[in-house]
Specification:
Rossmann fold; globular
Length: about 230
């Protein structure tokens, strides 16, 4: 599925004199299997662009399409279902539910999607195996290291077999060794399953591994670089 932003703007104030642009004239085409990073200082607009791609917020102007479908025309409920069906999310602070085990954290969004118990078990076991935690499903988040919690977060993101993974500063809270292991896991998932990844990141190690870097400044894509890794 192709994800397309065309001349998208996001304005956070309505006053003509005090317009604040979260995104300004952003055009991005994201293709299946892309491994792409949005890079820029804090406040540059990276997270706003990530949220626009996800349909979590709507643009003030411009078009946002997923597989040719105009996302801006969908209701809030329809956009929520669309995200659940086609996207997975990885966050800087993991966002695991502390009262649920690792297995249950991965299970929860699958329940929302209406999978049967048999299919949920197959998908959760598969996802835990992909991230190397197949023997830790019964542990609670507080019993896991930061790196292990992020692996659970990744397993939760991929268990629904999405077409796009959006990861906001996914290595920011990890030590160097663990961050490198997580980056290698992302690369493996991208290669093995042709999963599309879009990162918001400051991490130079991750920037060095992506195939496309979009530099963001003042809500705009100031530069784009593509390299082979």
């Amino acid at each position: 599925m192709q994800f397309e932003l065309s001349h998208v703007e996001k304005i956070y104030t309505s006053s003509e004199e005090n317009k604040v642009f979260g995104a300004r004239d952003v055009s991005i085409n994201i293709h299946e299997g892309d491994f792409l990073a949005l890079v820029g200082p804090s406040g540059s607009g990276k997270t706003t662009i990530l949220n626009l791609i996800a349909g979590l917020i709507l643009p003030s102007s411009g078009s946002l399409k997923h597989g040719g479908k105009d996302i801006t025309s969908l209701t809030l409920e329809e956009r929520t279902k669309h995200r659940l069906d086609y996207m997975g999310f990885v966050f800087q602070d993991y966002q695991l539910l502390p009262i649920l085990t690792a297995w249950e954290n991965i299970e929860f969004p699958l329940q929302l999607k209406g999978f049967s118990k048999t299919e949920i078990k197959e998908r959760v076991d598969w996802a835990l195996n992909q991230v190397g935690l197949n023997k830790m499903g019964n542990r609670f988040p507080k019993q896991l290291s930061g790196g292990q919690q992020q692996r659970v977060s990744i397993a939760r993101a991929i268990a629904g077999r999405p077409q796009l993974i959006l990861a906001d500063e996914p290595t920011a809270n990890l030590d160097s060794k663990t961050a490198q292991e997580i980056i290698e896991l992302f690369l493996k998932l991208n290669k093995d399953f042709n999963l599309t990844f879009i990162f918001s990141t400051h991490d130079q190690r991750l920037i060095d591994q992506v195939r496309t870097v979009l530099y963001v400044k003042d809500g705009q894509i100031s530069e784009a670089r593509t390299h082979h890794v």
